[in-house]
């Protein structure tokens, strides 16, 4: 009798198997399938370690016990895809404490050899080589763990917003102009016209606020043609965007971000134990309120604590963010909001009477890295047009947006959160590209 397993989709015909983690030592017979992770040949005895998405299992072929299968397994190669039916028996030495005595063995696909990249052995390979061979690199259990963790993290994030009544939206990736600045746009040919890849859903999120959608989120993609060579920038970004209306001020937006992030991190801490183990991460959920400091306080702190002055006095530089992150992390706060950046874009609420801050724009710094930007928007189109004129922004490029907001727009705000950076920080990876399956940077278009 076969045991029922985790892979049993009712309506789809599938090859019969269960996941390696579901193999119980007292089952009579089970079927497993996966890649050949390791082969150990000890003469009359061959150990195959088979890897599926959830783990590893050892299959022991004995010449004396199953001569035909033993003969067949002589040709096996690393990364072949195999299926084994067998009897589980307890074993102290085997991964997971159980191994299989094979009754049936079949090769579903043979892998070419030699492999350009080792999967099972922990050899030190530089990131560039790993990314050149990403198709194989993605097979490593600790790499797969990054992406199953991401899936759990974002499912929890979306769950929070669904439960709070946010509408899941989809905005266009092809646009006539940009939201974040001309120099960072990727031009494309759109039929016979010039167009661009979207930098941010920002303008569309705001149009939806004007349209009365009240609260929206989007798990999407943004493109930035920045010419960077850093460990925290890529050209194609996974972005989580949020916008909500009828806010009192930017603190309501920060509340949403803080609660949703805490919820998602909690879910990971609870439901991604195996991934966190594989990645050797001890994830601390920030249960206390995230500190909210003003931009001026951030500058003061950098000066007095570290003697550091950002080159551009209207923004925090990378080093400043890192120092600030370390300072607050030491006090038990991995996440801190910096609020009230000066000289902000026309779409942020600025110079509000009674405010001590220059604008209602904030950034979230998480473990020393800017994770998101957002704030309360300017919903008065006349004021926006004035600021655009002062800043020298071409109004014509934004006419569709200004017009949309001119027909009655509730007070609103939102933010964009870089999902890849969040994953990088949660998993403790050195480079953002490790947190992206197929990353894009100025030099990488393949695979
Ligand atoms: P911003 O341009 O700050 O704001 O982007 C939001 C967040 O996206 C991530 N990010 C990046 N991640 C990797 N590589 C890049 N090149 C890159 N650029 C940005 C960061 C950043 O904090 N329209 C506003 C959002 C809003 O106000 O709604 C915006 O896009 O984590």
From TrEMBL:
Source organism superkingdom: Archaea
Main location: cytoplasm
Subunit structure: Homodimer.
UniProt protein name: Aspartate--tRNA(Asp/Asn) ligase
PANTHER family linked to this entry: ASPARTATE--TRNA LIGASE, CYTOPLASMIC, ASPARTYL-TRNA SYNTHETASE
Subcellular locations according to the entry: Cytoplasm
Family statement: Belongs to the class-II aminoacyl-tRNA synthetase family. Type 2 subfamily.
Keywords, comma-separated and alphabetical: Aminoacyl-tRNA synthetase, ATP-binding, Cytoplasm, Ligase, Magnesium, Metal-binding, Nucleotide-binding, Protein biosynthesis
Domain Aminoacyl-transfer RNA synthetases class-II family profile as annotated: residue spans: 147-439
């Amino acid at each position: 009798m076969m045991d029922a397993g985790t892979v049993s989709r009712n309506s789809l015909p599938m090859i019969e198997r269960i996941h390696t983690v579901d193999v119980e030592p007292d089952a009579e017979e089970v079927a497993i399938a996966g890649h050949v992770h390791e082969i150990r040949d000890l003469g009359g005895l061959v150990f195959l370690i088979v890897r599926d998405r959830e783990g590893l299992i050892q299959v022991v072929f004995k010449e004396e016990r199953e001569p035909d299968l033993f003969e067949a397994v002589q040709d096996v190669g690393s990364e072949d895809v195999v299926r084994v039916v067998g009897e589980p028996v307890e074993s102290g030495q085997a991964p997971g404490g159980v191994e299989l005595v094979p009754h049936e063995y079949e090769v579903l696909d043979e892998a070419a050899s030699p492999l350009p990249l080792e999967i099972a052995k922990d050899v030190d390979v530089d990131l560039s080589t790993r990314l050149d061979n990403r198709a194989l690199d993605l097979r490593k259990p600790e790499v797969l763990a990054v992406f199953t963790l991401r899936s759990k993290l974002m499912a929890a994030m979306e769950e929070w917003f669904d439960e709070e009544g946010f509408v899941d939206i989809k905005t266009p990736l092809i646009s006539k102009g940009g939201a974040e600045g001309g120099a960072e746009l990727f031009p494309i040919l759109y039929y016979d016209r010039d167009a661009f890849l979207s930098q941010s859903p920002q303008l569309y999120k705001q149009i939806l606020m004007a349209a009365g959608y009240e609260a929206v989120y989007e798990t999407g993609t943004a493109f930035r043609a920045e010419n960077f060579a850093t460990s925290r920038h890529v050209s194609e970004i996974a972005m989580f965007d949020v916008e909500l209306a009828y806010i009192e001020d930017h603190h309501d937006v920060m509340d949403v971000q803080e609660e949703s992030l805490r919820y998602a991190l909690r879910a990971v801490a609870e439901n991604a134990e195996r991934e966190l183990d594989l990645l050797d991460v001890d994830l601390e959920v920030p249960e206390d309120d995230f500190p909210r400091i003003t931009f001026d306080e951030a500058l003061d702190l950098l000066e007095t604590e570290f003697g550091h002055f950002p080159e551009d006095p209207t923004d925090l530089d990378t080093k400043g963010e890192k120092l600030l992150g370390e300072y607050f992390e030491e006090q038990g706060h991995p996440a801190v909001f910096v609020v009230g950046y000066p000289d902000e874009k026309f779409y942020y609420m600025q110079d509000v009477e009674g405010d001590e801050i220059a604008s209602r724009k904030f950034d979230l710094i998480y473990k020393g890295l800017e994770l998101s930007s957002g704030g309360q928007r300017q919903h008065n189109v006349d004021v926006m047009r004035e600021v655009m004129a002062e800043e020298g922004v071409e109004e014509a490029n934004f006419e569709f947006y200004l017009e949309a907001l001119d027909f009655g727009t509730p007070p609103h705000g939102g933010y964009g959160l870089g999902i890849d950076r969040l994953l990088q920080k949660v998993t403790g990876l050195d480079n953002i590209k490790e947190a992206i399956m197929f990353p894009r940077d100025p030099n990488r278009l393949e695979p």
